[in-house]
Prior knowledge:
With 310 residues, the protein is of the alpha+beta class.
Amino acid sequence: MLPLxxxxxxxxxxxxxxxxxxxxxxKPSRSSLKKQLAGLEKKVDRLIADYNAKRxxxxxxxxxxQAARDRLTRAEAxxxxxxxxxxxxxxxxxxxxxPMPVPDLTTSALVYQMQxxxxxxxxxxxxxxxxxxxxxxxxxxxxxxxxxxxxxVDDQREQAEKxxxxxxxxxxxxxxxxxxKRPGGSWAPELPTGAxxxxxxxxxxxxxxxxxxxxRFPVGCYRSESSGEHPLxxxxxxxxxxxxxxxxxxxxxxxxxxxxxxxxNGSKLGVKYVIWRxxxxxxxxxxxxxxxxRGGITANHYDHVHISMY
Length: 310
């Protein structure tokens, strides 16, 4: 069994437990699941780095093989050109010499020199051909070996990613059902409470987001406005940048994850809709829809994820 595969199986046993007769599956705590998830994500990162390193080696091997092919092509062209030159020169000399040619030491020396050059080029041609053959064989062997190794790494990465998805599902199952949910799925009205002036459902949603994600910027919920859920204490803005600037790629990915998580767990938490990057997802009418341009990064929700609650 591959070392990582054994590790993945061990991690599975650690996270999900091993059921025995007469015993219910243990319910892991949020902290233990998050710790295991962090470890697996690091393992996947190492696998991806290993996978990419092998791809780089494979590219280098193919480049070396192509360079050998190019050298052979040049050697073949040089040899053919010299061969034609010597043959053409010898043919002209034969035609011009007549039946009783007078020895021409200069011409003979030139022919001899060209023959020597031809021999040298032939030798170089043979060397280039041998080098190319060796390089091609070595590159093919390396290519086959790297493909096999890359396939193993890819399989291991997929195993770890599947386990990560399972752990994330387990974490999602730990998200509690918010108060006020009626049997038919609708939500009873709530009044804002506490110093934050937000409803209990909004407080629970904000707490759960903070528990599940590494938020780097402030979260704003209640504020006095003429419309929307903010003045009702039923909305929060999770900032992904500051100063009205566009988020970095890392923070944009975090915003994507927060928005997806809110949608996935919306039926338990009482999420009404999510706005992110000038698009709105209404849980009553699933699907992202583009919003009108409001004229700025913040106004168009490019720098924060907005979550409104029932």
